[in-house]
Amino acid sequence: ERAGLIRRQPGVARSIEVLVAPEGLPLLRHPQLVKSSGPRI
Description:
This protein is mostly beta strands. The protein has strands at 6-8, 16-18. The chain has a two-stranded antiparallel sheet. A hairpin with a 7-residue loop joins strand 1 and strand 2 (16-18). The protein starts with 5 loop residues before the first strand and ends in a 23-residue tail after the last strand. The model has no long low-confidence stretch (mean pLDDT 73). It comes from Microvirga tunisiensis. This is MarR family transcriptional regulator.
């Protein structure tokens, strides 16, 4: 937040906006499955 990369809205639950230009993000490879050991809800 201090670096200006995210913005939050007070009073709004789970409201975080990423302020990085798409060109500044690394390219993702093919989608990969994520394994989780936690129970499904």
